[in-house]
Amino acid sequence: GIRLAPKERLEIPVLFMPAEMKIYKAVVIIHVMRENGENWPYEVTAESNTDLNRNVTVAENGETQGILWIYPINGTPEAPQQKSVVIRCQARQRLEQRVELLLIGVMPGATALPDAGNSAMDPTGELSNTPEVTGGSSATLEFLYELQYQADEIRSQLESLVGMQLVEKEWDTESRIVTLIFNVVFSPSKPMRNEATLIIQCTAGGLWKFPLVFIATEPEVDDVINIEAVGLNKESIVGFKLTSQTR
């Protein structure tokens, strides 16, 4: 019963308050009819395309009685942001560290999307196979993960220095907590402090975000240069070579 004048804007509020970590789906349908109750003279025939048949309501005489706008809504619950995980390594060294992340409130895999694959997204954007998680029941959990950066500048600094791989998943059916174990490789070339966010999504529903802080400390001293004086007010010269690691 909402009346709209020509060119008038209508805002439709949508509230999403999930009770569980699973996928929610709904459809918002807007049905528009003429205020005077008359039909549009356009007739929808059997030869009309499928989209047109779906988006109109037809009167008995074949004329168009109403127009439909259909908006599918997919709701994905997101867990509260977790505490930061700090990964620290000395510059010009290579760190390989196992990181355990807890996903609380995971729903069984029975509600997973029908086209969901058993795969994970690595930081390069390519899909890689990951093992299934089974907890002594028929429930199977599948996850996608991706490392996101706040800016392109941070991405350019970290992307070639950081590698992540999901190596193990443990599923506790009673507490509905999944433990994901990642193998993180960090090989910084110079001192830095940058942040990234690990986004994990369960195909059964739910989104978790884990802030990661990558810290590269000062490197080891390359060498000690000793200069012996040859006398007062006289110069002493020592030469040494520096080699660039890049072009």
Automatic annotation (TrEMBL):
GO CC annotations, alphabetized? cilium
Q: Give the transmembrane region(s).
A: none
Provide the CFAP47-like immunoglobulin-like domain boundaries: 78-217
One GO biological-process annotation of the entry reads: sperm axoneme assembly
Question: This protein's superkingdom?
Answer: Eukaryota
Which residues are the signal sequence here?
Answer: none
> Which PANTHER family is this protein grouped with?
CILIA- AND FLAGELLA-ASSOCIATED PROTEIN 47
Protein name (record): CFA47 protein
> Which species is listed as the source?
Melanocharis versteri (Fan-tailed berrypecker)
Q: Taxonomy-wise, where does this protein's organism fall, top ranks first? A: Eukaryota, Metazoa, Chordata, Craniata, Vertebrata
